[in-house]
Amino acid sequence: MKEIVKIFYKTLFLILVIFSVNVHGKILSSGDADAKVTVKVFSSLTCPACANFHSEIYYDLKKDFIDTGLVKFEHHPFPLDLAALNAEIILRCSITNEKKFELLGAIYKKQNSWAVGSDINRINDSIKKIGLEFNMKDEKMNNCLKNDRSQDEILNQRIEAQKKYKIQSTPTIFINEKKYSGKVNYKQFKKAIERNL
Known about the structure:
Distance between the termini: 55 Å
Largest sheet: 5 strands, mixed
Helix content: 55-70%
């Protein structure tokens, strides 16, 4: 009987560990988990304003605040169409967190070349080309795109975000749970961050 109880608790422990890893893995984040400031960006990978925010704000924010441990940055998926959903799936298909952020930057940078047209197969092929540049395997990306669990996870996050934050457009940005509605330029954004430090 004691052996059965031991096995039960070991199994329960493993389930909890696996579950906690999956929960942690749902949000793409960068920076110190205990940072004083958390920046949450709800974005759609096909949204030009989201790509603009990433290029105009993220890299300077990373250098000045994320890498120094002052800010934790979170990318929250809020796909507005199937192309954005599939790009998000490919993004999650990448192995390391660092690679995911590099891939995110490339997806935004090349948005004009892949997020066009209405043929989802062509769009998927274009997204996968970007993945191949990051040494992702074609077969793995195809498997990720067929993974209903990953798709459901992203869509559930979108639904939860809609309920909790009342997202009406992308990007929607929160600094320590307070909606940021200032201009998308680094000087203004930096001031908003500094007010929270």
